[in-house]
Design brief:
Low-confidence stretches: none
CATH class: Mainly Alpha
Mean pLDDT: 95
Radius of gyration: 17 Å
Number of domains: 1
CATH architecture: Orthogonal Bundle
CATH topology: Helix Hairpins
InterPro entries: MazG-like_dom, MazG-related_YpjD, YpjD/YvdC
Strand content: under 5%
CATH superfamily: MazG-like
Organism: Flavobacterium zepuense
Structural class: mainly alpha
Number of strands: 0
Protein name: Nucleotide pyrophosphohydrolase
Helix content: over 70%
Order of helices and strands: HHHH
Keywords: Hydrolase
Number of helices: 4
GO molecular function, one term: hydrolase activity
Length: about 110
């Protein structure tokens, strides 16, 4: 997936199906809600909490995709080129964190 193309896909979907973007504060609240749904699955499926029967059919991939969709909406409506920002972040993390993680005794 190319992030820039995903931003364009989301924008096209909004224009065709969604009428308009929700405002930024609404999308931030929606993002928080979607991240909460991911956290619930992770906590119960991979953590120490027991998973309710009603949660066993929840699709983690679908919930993660919901998070990505809202992030792309926020990027579009605030004028952020997320591909450029992501590439820059990966470069920064690669330079900053390479030795740090390799030298971290907790990760060995």
């Amino acid at each position: 997936m190319n992030i820039q193309n995903a931003q364009l896909d989301v924008d096209s979907w909004i224009k065709e199906h969604g009428v308009r973007y929700f405002n930024e504060l609404t999308n931030m609240a929606q993002l928080t809600e979607e991240v909460g749904e991911v956290a619930r699955i992770i906590a119960r499926r991979y953590g120490e909490q027991s998973e309710k029967e009603s949660d066993k059919n929840k699709d983690l991939g679908e919930e993660l995709a919901d998070v990505v969709f809202v992030v792309l909406c926020l990027a579009n409506q605030t004028g952020v080129n997320l591909q450029e920002a992501f590439d820059k972040k990966m470069d920064l993390k690669s330079k900053r964190d390479h030795d740090r993680h390799h030298n971290n005794e907790k990760l060995k």
